[in-house]
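Hello forum,

I keep getting stuck at the same step: I have a sequence, I want structure tokens, and every attempt I make locally crashes halfway through. Rather than fight my setup again tonight, could one of you with a working pipeline run this one for me? It's a single chain of 167 residues.
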Amino acid sequence: MQSSASTVADYLAELPDERRRIVTALRQAILDNLDSGYTESMQGGMIGYSVPHSLFPAGYHCNPKQPLPFAAIASQKNYVSVYLLGVYCGCVGEAESSEVTWFREAWAASGKQKLDMGKACVRVRKIEDAALGVIGEAIRRVPAHTYIERYVRALATTAKGGGKKTP
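Reply #2:
Ran it on my machine without issues. Output:
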């Protein structure tokens, strides 16, 4: 559910108590591990973490006016989504990157609830089931300069920097 809040504080204030508790814990896990090259802001109706134009002037290839997204937290209808683009960046086709493999194995080793994950989206229904340490480590493992390098490399493998590679 996309929010119209213009600040993170406003976003948190509009959440029901239980959702605010989940989002706040996830946000803290991210902030505690976030490289100084990233910034926190509202992006696309959710709390976003991105590489600012001052560090990566090209911005996001789909909309260069936007900073390069790295991670996000969004309260959805039935769960809270944590988007970990730093884990997913570098995947080609259906193959998982070493970061995705590490993430899945680390989550399983945490003893928490079974991982509910799409490509870059981890779905959290109860904060007690979330492996906050694994989420934090996933953020810490990808400083901004590494993420930019992976992103540029991934774009170079796609046709015109945005679509599937043509045969």
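The beta strands are 39-43, 46-51, 68-75, 80-84, 121-124. If your local run keeps crashing, start a new thread with the error log.
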